[in-house]
Amino acid sequence: MPLEVRFLHDPLSTQGFVGCALYANVFRFYRKDDGTWAAHKVISIPPKKVEGWALPEMPGVMTDILISLDDRFLYFSNWAHGDVRQYDITDPEHPKLVGQIFLGGSIVKGGPVKVVHDVELKEQPDPVYIQGRKLEGSPQMLQLSLDGKRLYVTDSLFSPWDRQFYPETVAKGSVMLQMDVDTVNGGLTLNKDFLVDFGKEPEGPSLAHEIRYPGGDCTSDIWLPAGSSECPHRASGKCAEAKMPAKI
């Protein structure tokens, strides 16, 4: 079930990635030399055998994917399992897992779900608390700062599904969190000084979904290197002077 499609930001590139939600697969698609298009699976998250859930096997349910502005890292969230992952896509045919963090989800210790077989984890992840608030939901929509150093996440997917799988999120409201990103070696760390609690909204509790930067962001724009001959603003000299890449 393809859900999110992300092209590389390089406008001369003819490839990208698509996240397939239910079974948590990522496919790379690309244009071949003969002009035709092809795709193959490059990431697959194995399901977990569980008790106390809707099905005997719990898939990852990959709900959002994102590519950093420099096309080096790919991020995605597994809404059922509860983790955010970071992959180095320097070699796009062979993504390499370099960062992972659990922020709630359906398999945390002390919850109604018992994991009976897991090919990835030796034990169920611990619940996560930030500023005294337990994370009741699971990471969902993502947004990355333009410098790639701060990854933001909210936890509401679709209110009927939120109500079914994470009822405490509906009762208490969503949160927005920030992860600090190691852009050298890879790695994700929760910033415990940052918390937006949508349960405290005047008309709340509220459920938060999309995250956007007003001037453009990593999920919606294609960018050109400063001073690129392909940039339509090059004649003005603005791109050559800009510290950040120039947006089309």
From TrEMBL:
Q: Does the keyword Glycoprotein apply?
A: no
Task: List membrane-spanning regions.
Answer: none
Q: What is this protein called?
A: Putative selenium-binding protein 1
Among PANTHER family, the record links this protein to: METHANETHIOL OXIDASE
Superkingdom, taxonomy of origin: Eukaryota
Any one Pfam family match given in the protein's UniProt record, by short name: SBP56
Q: Which organism is it from?
A: Penaeus vannamei (Whiteleg shrimp)
What molecular function does GO assign, one term? selenium binding
Instruction: Name the family.
Output: Belongs to the selenium-binding protein family.
Q: Which InterPro entries match?
A: Se-bd
